């Protein structure tokens, strides 16, 4: 192999490694002297990388280095994406935790706004809430409650260990927005020893005037 051809191979190798996208023969031809055999050089480079950890692959007229197919499964890694709950989801989670089993209509009544499907979906995806059966009332609405994963995530042995409203705020789990403030001021987030153990709440828990005049008008 002549010195010039070896340098051309090195140049193609460097260009392909440095590029995040596949390069066409025309792209690579521009890097070489006029009349250089770019296709022959690429075939030679491809042969040099046969059975290596990375291989030179061709897709139509575009070339790129790729991980050898048999090694790809060994290089996979999992990454945990931590997503902060929306304010609406935080409100709903607090209501479910302290008033379970609770229906969708009761959640909406306490919050003063309609509950979007996405809010419950986020809590279901996190594994923190689950259906708790149907209430024996007209329409038999579905009720919701927390899961064992909820207790585990927040380091609770049982629902009796749920903190009070001030402890939740101090831990950053609740904010001071009107809906949450109203829940605390009106006693709708009870102290730990009064938290539900899973039995039905009295209808009085969901009476009228459960939120301030400046209630939220739409779901966040």
Q: In terms of topology, how is this protein built?
A:
Layout: H1 3-18, E1 23-24, H2 25-29, H3 38-48, E2 54-59, E3 62-67, H4 87-99, E4 102-103, H5 104-111, H6 117-126, E5 129-134, E6 142-146, H7 148-153, H8 165-170, H9 178-185
Antiparallel strand pairs: 1-3, 2-3, 4-6, 5-6
Helix pairs in contact: 1-3, 4-6
Per DSSP, the total helix count is: 9
Order of helices and strands: HEHHEEHEHHEEHHH
What structural class do you assign from the helix and strand content? alpha+beta
CATH superfamily of the largest domain: Winged helix-like DNA-binding domain superfamily/Winged helix DNA-binding domain
Number of DSSP E strands: 6
Strand content: 5-15%
Helix fraction? Answer: 25-40%
Shape: rod-shaped
Given this structure, which CATH class of the largest domain is correct? Mainly Alpha
Quickly give the CATH architecture of the largest domain. Orthogonal Bundle
Fold-level CATH name of the largest domain: Arc Repressor Mutant, subunit A
Radius of gyration: 31 Å
Rounded to the nearest angstrom, the distance between the terminal CA atoms is 67 Å
Largest sheet: 3 strands, antiparallel
* Number of domain modules: 2
With strands numbered from the N-terminus, the spatial order across the biggest sheet is: 1-3-2
Comma- or semicolon-separated keywords:
220 residues, alpha+beta, Arc Repressor Mutant, subunit A, 9 helices, 6 strands, rod-shaped
Brief description of this entry?
The protein is of the alpha+beta class.
Please provide a written account of the structure:
The chain contains nine helices and six strands. With 220 residues, the chain is an alpha+beta fold. α1 (3-18) crosses α3 (38-48) and α4 crosses α6 (117-126). The strands form two sheets. A three-stranded antiparallel β-sheet has the order 1-3-2. A three-stranded antiparallel β-sheet has the order 4-6-5. The chain folds into two domains: 3-75, Arc Repressor Mutant, subunit A (Orthogonal Bundle); 87-206, Arc Repressor Mutant, subunit A. It is 38% helix and 12% strand. The model is unreliable at 176-180 and 192-220 (pLDDT under 50).
């Amino acid at each position: 192999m002549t010195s010039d051809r070896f340098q051309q191979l090195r140049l193609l190798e460097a260009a392909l490694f440095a590029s995040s996208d596949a390069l066409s023969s025309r792209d690579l031809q521009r890097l070489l002297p006029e009349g250089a055999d770019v296709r022959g050089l690429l075939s030679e480079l491809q042969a040099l990388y046969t059975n290596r950890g990375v291989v030179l692959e061709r897709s139509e007229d575009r070339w790129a280095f790729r991980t050898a197919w048999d090694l790809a499964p060994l290089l996979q890694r999992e990454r945990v994406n931590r997503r902060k709950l929306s304010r609406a989801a935080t409100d709903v989670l607090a209501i479910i935790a302290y008033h379970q089993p609770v229906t969708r209509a009761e959640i909406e009544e306490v919050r003063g706004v309609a509950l979007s499907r996405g809010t419950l979906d986020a809590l279901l995806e996190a594994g923190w809430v689950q259906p708790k059966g149907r209430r024996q009332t007209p329409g038999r609405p579905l009720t919701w409650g927390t899961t064992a994963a909820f207790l585990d995530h927040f380091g609770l042995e049982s629902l009796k260990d749920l903190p009070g409203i001030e402890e939740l705020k101090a831990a950053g789990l609740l904010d001071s927005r009107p809906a949450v403030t109203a829940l605390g001021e009106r006693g709708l987030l009870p102290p730990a020893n009064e938290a539900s153990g899973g039995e039905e709440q009295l209808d009085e828990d969901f009476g009228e005037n459960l939120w301030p005049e400046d209630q939220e008008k739409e779901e966040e």
